[in-house]
Specification:
By secondary structure, the chain is α+β, with helices and mostly antiparallel strands. It has two domains: about 35 residues, no CATH class; about 120 residues, Mannose-Binding Protein A, Chain A, CATH 3.10.100.10. The chain contains three helices and ten strands. β1 and β2 form a beta hairpin. The radius of gyration is 21 Å and the shape is globular. The chain starts with a helix and ends in a 17-residue tail after the last strand. The mean pLDDT is about 85. It comes from Hepialus xiaojinensis. It holds the Pfam family Lectin_C. This is Immulectin 16.
Length: about 220
């Protein structure tokens, strides 16, 4: 029985060669031809999904209908209820064409509070802090010098009680409580999180390049 690779036999010269008897996966090079590689090697990758049944989210310019917009806001937002640590949450938002939510105005905070309320603690499954939402600020570069992933914090930001306190090593990443107050949280502990992407025909935030990596 023929496979798709048999029908499209466009291997690079000398490939596949199963070097060291350890090349069981395949990549496509820039020439459009294939090579076999070890499956534990790291490469960029391309995903594909069927367009059958997809609905276009015209307000947010995406097929992801979980992103929601609100009148007067320049962005769309999505709550992810599958917990991830801060770094993985950052990567998930980026993969969707967005970024961890950056809360700079009362209107943005109010809308996120509303979206958060749609996911009460009782509806969330798993062992994690269910009243905190990972968002896009941190002090990973300089301890206690908090900043957004696109620049300095704005005066609007209000922390809860005596926070941020960096209570134990690792509380270097940002979160928002259900009441809209901010806190620092352990970067390596999974939690639910909020992603943001520009809404269509509205002025987007200047988030390119994101400053997750120190410049």
């Amino acid at each position: 029985e023929q496979s798709a690779l048999d029908l499209y036999d466009e291997w690079n010269d000398g490939e596949p060669n199963n070097q060291n008897d350890n090349e069981d996966c395949a990549v496509m090079t820039r020439t459009g031809k294939y090579s076999d590689v070890a499956c534990d090697q790291v490469f960029p990758f391309l995903c594909v999904r069927s367009k059958v049944g997809l609905t276009w989210n015209s307000a947010c310019n995406t097929y992801d209908t979980d992103y929601q917009s609100s009148a007067g806001l320049s962005s769309c937002y999505k709550i992810h209820t599958n917990p991830k640590n801060w770094t993985d949450a950052y990567g998930t938002c980026k993969a969707e064409g967005g970024y961890l939510a950056i809360v700079k105005t009362d209107a943005e905070k109010t809308f996120l509070i509303k979206l958060f309320a749609d996911h009460p603690s009782s509806s969330l499954r798993g062992e994690f802090w269910k009243d905190a939402l990972l968002i896009g600020f941190h002090d990973l570069f300089v301890s206690r010098e908090y900043e957004y992933i696109d620049g300095p914090l704005v005066p609007l930001i209000k922390f809860s009680g005596a926070e941020p306190d960096n209570y134990t090593p690792g509380e270097r990443c940002g979160t928002m409580y259900r009441d809209g107050l901010f806190d620092d949280i352990w970067c390596d502990r999974p939690n639910i999180f909020a992603c943001e992407m520009p809404a269509v025909a509205r002025t987007a935030k200047n988030v390119t390049p994101l400053r997750f990596r120190k410049q």
